[in-house]
Each structure stands twice: as structure tokens, then as C-alpha cells.
From TrEMBL:
Source organism of the structure: Streptomyces massasporeus
InterPro entries, per the entry: Anti-sigma-factor_SerPK, HATPase_C_sf, HATPase_dom
Record-linked SUPFAM superfamilies: ATPase domain of HSP90 chaperone/DNA topoisomerase II/histidine kinase
Region Disordered, annotated ranges: 1-25
Keyword Transferase: yes
Lineage of the species this protein comes from: Bacteria, Bacillati, Actinomycetota, Actinomycetes, Kitasatosporales
Name of the protein: ATP-binding protein
UniProt keyword list: ATP-binding, Kinase, Nucleotide-binding, Serine/threonine-protein kinase, Transferase
Keyword Transferase: yes
Amino acid sequence: MTTHRAATPPQPGMTDGGPTAASSVPAVSPLASRAFEMVMAPASIHVAQARGTTAAVLRQWALPDAPAEDAQLVVSELVTNAISHGSGAVGLRVLYGNHQLRIEVTDGSTTPAKRRRAGANDLGGRGLLLVAHLSHRWGVADSGRTTYAVIPTLTEAPPCRRTAQPTLDPTC
């Protein structure tokens, strides 16, 4: 069984309790923080559901394709690890604000997730390596119960610096 909860800032003129005067609620900027959470039983079938729910929410938030795809893979890996190596219900929380996504996966185990070196013939052991490559940073919190990853959401290329030296970069 899974439960979902999505949170976005209230729109002008609306609150959780119903309509309000538009002047009492500040306008929401497109970069306002957003969050969603879901809790699931530790069953492998829920990995695809967590990935699909994340994809749907990120589309609703109009996140660019590249960070949304990275986020889906990170969710898949972290939820799989929590189901395979953790204990109890698995919680997923995705927070969006300040040009980044923070993905948190929580379970009941206090054993922190650790990257390991997988052998050429190993079927597993590469998940946290993928998470490390796709995210700006990752780590553990809450005494090892939560593994998180932070993915930047800005996809524009930084402006080229003009230097005295000619560049071979075709984007400049």
C-alpha cells in the first residue's frame, strides 16, 4: 500500500480552508518551493510506482527533461536500496526549490548506505555510484535512516568567458 501527498504553495485567493481575499495571499513565483511525499511497503513492485509518481509530479512542476530523468533514476536506485537493505516502510520525499531537487528516501534501518565497488560479474552494487554521478551531492542523515541526493535543475549553459586566448569550445 502506498500513500501520496503533494504540496505546493497556495495560489492567490485560495488556502487549504477555501477561498480567501486575493490581497491576503502573496503571489507565488514560479521558483517557489514544492514538495511531495509517498510511503510504501517494502516490496519491489513499488520501485516502478515511485519512479512513475516522481515523473508525473516533475512534469506537473514543469521541470526540464534532463534533471527530471536524472531524478527518476536516483529515485529508482534509492528506493531499491531501501527495500533491499533497509527495514520497514519506505518513505520518499522530493523537494524542489532554489534551482535544485532534493530526493530523500527513508526506512527503519540505522545502517547508513555506503558506496561499494562492484565486480565485473556482480549483478548489483552500482546504484550509489550512479546516484553520485547524477547528483550534485548525496549522503545520509537521520542516524542512517535517510539517504538523500541533490540534483541541480538549471539546464542552461553558463555564459562563455571571453579571454585573450581563442577557444575551441563550439558553444562560445
